[in-house]
Design brief:
Blueprint lengths: L2 H18 L3 E4 L13 E4 L4 E9 L3 E4 L1 H14 L2 E8 L5 E4 L8 E4 L7 H4 L1
Parallel strand pairs: 3-5
Antiparallel strand pairs: 1-2, 2-3, 4-7, 5-6
């Protein structure tokens, strides 16, 4: 399975989990290939709107370049939603990092970092 196919399948997995938690969710197909900033998923439960950038890692470590993070923040500011980095490490559940503003450096996380879990972001 190619990187794009694998990423898309994990995006669909998170989409299903959010739907099970009562969110309306849309997947922005091809978001990583688009010319404009846009998240992988947009989700709302009527109280909050979340914009997700989803990342999978088969290792214990993942870095997202600052331009990608800042593009998510830019979109979310315009869309009035919360920017969320969603990480799925091999053999773990989804973990999340809310980004409050633009970043000046790449964002790196480790599998064992103290990241948020689903119930903490919804």
């Amino acid at each position: 399975m190619g990187c794009y196919s694998k990423g898309a399948s994990y995006e669909r997995e998170l989409l299903a989990l959010l739907k099970d938690k009562g969110f309306a969710v849309v997947r922005v197909a091809g978001s990583g290939r688009a010319r404009m900033e846009q998240p992988d998923l947009l989700a709302s439960n009527g109280r909050k709107i979340l914009g997700f950038e989803c990342k999978y890692s088969g290792t214990d470590y993942k870095t997202i370049v600052k331009d990608e993070v800042n593009s998510l923040v830019d979109f979310c500011k315009k869309f009035n939603c919360v920017p969320v980095l969603a990480f799925r490490f091999q053999h773990t559940e989804w973990k999340f990092k809310i980004i409050s503003d633009y970043v000046s450096e790449n964002v790196s996380v480790k599998k064992n970092d103290d990241l948020l879990v689903m119930d903490e972001i919804i």
